[in-house]
Amino acid sequence: MKTPLLDQIDTPADLRRFKEKDLRQIADELRSDLIDAVSQTGGHLGAGLGVVELTVALHYVFNTPDDRLIWDVSHQAYPHKILTQRRERMRTVRQEGGLSGFAKRTESEYDPFGAGHSSTSISAGLGMAVARDLAGAKNNVVSVIGDGAMSAGMAYEAMNNAGALDARLIVILNDNDMSIAPPTGAMSHYLARLVSGKTYRTLRNRARDFTQRLPDFFREGARKTEEYTRGFFTGGTLFEELGFYYIGPIDGHDLDALVPVLKNVRDAETGPILVHVVTKKGKGYEPAESSADKYHGVSKFDVITGAQSKSKGNAPSYTNVFASSLIEEARHDDKIVAVNAAMPAGTGLDKFGEAYPTRTFDVGIAEQHAVTFCAGLATEGYKPFAAIYSTFLQRAYDQVVHDVAIQHLPVRFAIDRAGFVGADGATHAGSFDTAYLCPLPGFVVMASSDEAELRHMVRTAAAYDEGPISFRYPRGNGTGVDMPERGEVLEIGKGRLIKEGSKVAILAFGTRLTDSLAAAEELDGYGLSTTVADARFAKPLDTDLVERLARNHEVLITVEEGSSGGFAAQVLQHLASVGLLDMGLKIRPIVMPDAFVDHGVPAKMNAEAGLDKAGIVSTVFRALGREESEAARRA
Length: 635
Ligand SMILES: Cc1ncc(C[n+]2csc(CCOP(=O)(O)OP(=O)(O)O)c2C)c(N)n1
Ligand SMILES: CC(=O)[C@@H](O)[C@H](O)COP(=O)(O)O
Ligand SMILES: [Mg+2]
Hints:
This protein is of the alpha/beta class. The longest helix has 19 residues, at about 25-40. The site of magnesium ion has 6 residues, from loops. Pfam families: DXP_synthase_N, Transket_pyr, Transketolase_C. This is 1-deoxy-D-xylulose-5-phosphate synthase. It comes from Fulvimarina pelagi HTCC2506.
């Protein structure tokens, strides 16, 4: 693969030394370099391919990093990384110690704002624009946001504020008519109408003519600009009503159109501007173009065939077990409905949707709405399952508290991606759900230790009508245990004893149970007779079980793949309240570290957190004051 022009670019300043006529070739080279890099690492591909020309044009026209360029979600920022001094390290992306898969402030001065969650770019950009104005500076601020990300309320909150402030902020709406899955919602239909109109087709033919004329209009001021944009294009009125100058739709792969338009936008002395750019997700790589959802995020793949190297586990994924269990429950109960926020495949609800299309709702990237929508459904006697990743549910915390918990509504929360997620790193880690749900009065909080337990918990949640209930499960495959056709209804607030010993007790919450059992076996081998229990519930806590473990053992270890303040905090609070911490019990909570852990491999992340077999054994040895024997054992 020859990339003679790209080879001369280390920074955007190098790019800006080229003639405009070279940009096409640079974009082509950038695209092949991107495909080659991601084929070796895996990662987000389709979105980056779609913004290759836009990335080149933006860095060519704007004076980054002084001009601030903010990528929404930032999964599409790989071409930006290649042009901003990170090309050499692209083949380390999402690997331990390598580049992040997202924009990250600590990684580069060209990343003025980090992301991973969607729809933050306009708010952040507006903050930067206002800060610039307060400081009397003159740089530009550009936020690039996708059509999927445009479905979230935050984007409108920001535009509402930007319009009122009349701040000089440039928003590029990158409309590829795709979220991860095909987009849903009225806004998506509205954008489609703007794009499919006759105006867009004629504009493509007149792009050069248009861009030659644009500077005059901007120089003549805002009134003329508005006249121009309204005169040449239909639509855009929603953005105009919010106080933005709307420009577009523009073919985002046509550099001859993009560059002059962006130059004019850069030089315009106006308030907020929205440039509506139309692109194709996966552009320039046939497998990604024809299957944009499957190439949104990829594992390593063969560039020629496009075949992704999916490692087949021996056990089903937790996501699939959740989906099949819910499908089974829905067969028995027609009040069960399922809601996801733009993650149908990620949550397994695509399968539920095939079985029950009218009982499945993809609300777009709108977790807050998803939760309150479920609350509404619950008030009418439906049994909503909100299937949301742990990390994305954070965004809907007030809705969980105010709309669900306070009203004691039986919304079922299926919390996927709980624990370390690996390659997506800190922005996507499912660390905090247990800690943020346990303090809520009346909430039932469960964690499945394996896929059979997950099946039981889906059934339990379906049967539980008293109030809100949640169950968490991790990314990836189960343990391979036998699963019943249908789960059992678990007794609320009761854990299970798995193995009985006498000196050490390990109380696991969630899938760390497997390592707890392995640790127990090793400890037994050292003459430390070890009990293992699966807590199942962090709330209500099985206080009988916890007290028994505390009274009958010298050491009690709690283990969970979650942050501090979660399950361990519940156990400690209970034991402290009943005086069982006054008796010399050696209790040691093992939780995720108090740090935002970068991308890597989940097994290693757990090992570093002391959440694996070796970590549990070491913790027991340390609790018993046997560090030296432990060191010798390890040697
Ligand atoms: C708050 C939040 N919810 C869900 C996601 C998962 N997610 C990542 S990218 C994406 C689709 C974004 O679509 P769009 O903004 O159109 O970008 P595209 O991939 O099409 O370029 C989704 C749903 C997220 N990152 N953040
Ligand atoms: C960028 C983003 O938020 C999603 O694409 C996310 O990376 C998906 O994660 P999973 O692969 O765990 O579904
Ligand atoms: Mg999109």
